[in-house]
Amino acid sequence: MDIHSAKKIYCIGIGGIGLSALAQILLTRGKEVYGSDATHSAVIEKLQSAGAKVKITEDPKDIPKDTDLIIYSAAVPEDHKQRQKARQALIPEIVYPQALGQLLRRAELSIAVSGTNGKTTTTAMIGLLLEAAGLDPTVIVGSVVKQWGSNARAGKNNVMVVEACEHKAHMLHLQPNVIVLTNIEEDHLDFYKNIQHIQATFEKYIKVLPQHGWLFLNNDDEISREKLKRPQTQIRTFGIDRAADTQGKNIVYLDGKQNFEWWFQEKYIDDIDLQVPGKFNVANALASISVGTALGIETDVIKKSLENFAGTWRRFETVGQWQGARIISDYAHHPTALEQTLRATKEMYGDRRVITVFQPHQHNRTKKLFTGFVESLLKADNLIIPEIFHVEGREDDSDVSSKDLVEAITKKGTPAVYAADLSQTEKILKKTVQAGDVILMMGAGDIYTLAEKLCQKKS
Fold this sequence. Notes:
The chain is of the alpha/beta class.
């Protein structure tokens, strides 16, 4: 039983950003979608209004008897009560990346975006670009795209764009004919042994590309440029600091936006004005341009689509105002992403005081990348670090705390304050924030809930 032949599908952990997007696509394809999750959310409300029957439960009795297939989120453990019941009842079960792979294999044009940083924004940019070009794609993104108000877009053409996560080598379940690789760095070291293991896994992944397929590589990324064993397929590069097939030059920041020159194979093409800040977003845009030009999309369509790009949820998102300060929420949880986001904030709000709140995500990641986190946060001027967000089922090392980060950063000359939880973080902010400040809240945990609470917004 696979996702195509199944009529009634039950999703465990349906509120997750990936599985909820998949569920929306399945509903548009006439499937009966049922599901469960541990907590209620706006995502679940949206699924329910679209026709999914979702309960906040772990009760095995809630799985319909005539269920054809179980799809579970990668975050759901094997001993989950509903998964145990499914095995006893001999209901076939597959993990979300497997389901995504089955869906992707039916697409004539299948594009997967992978890499340590920038996957979500690049996926969204490419999806919007293909939509603007009239290709009517189906898109699954790891965040809510502002222009769609959703993390999914159901298209009618046989074209699909997906975000492909590298955690536990999940991308190996996919066999796309186009792969965009944003960069390769150390991360998910609760699964990977080292950077060599990560590189080898990506090499195995891109090896599936057919000769007529496409591989897009970031020429500014050392591993992609110099170490990655390349498959027998069509390859194009993009970048800013090094020569590439598609290159961005002369970035200029003005009034909260940025402009860059688009060059292709050493020839000037046009200027692009991006609404989203940061050099990293220029790189994301260049990846999208690379895909667009390879597919033969016209220059003016590419330019207009990127200039209209309004961003995604928790990717340098302006949440609102609080105590006269602007609050920005960002998903950054890797040292490189932290450094890039801090730099973008200072470039955009150079004349304003920036208060940085970083909630580390996962003890294992914090311990393995400790030095990187310390170095990236030294550039923060006013720093608050709440306790590490605990990730159930992915924690082997608990002998590290945000207190250790605060101590190491302070010793190097950058003042930092520890907060035991988000409640204490809020109290510290109330005493610290002044009108005109910018509050940058970063992390992959629940730090966004504090940003939304302060601005009285509901996710």
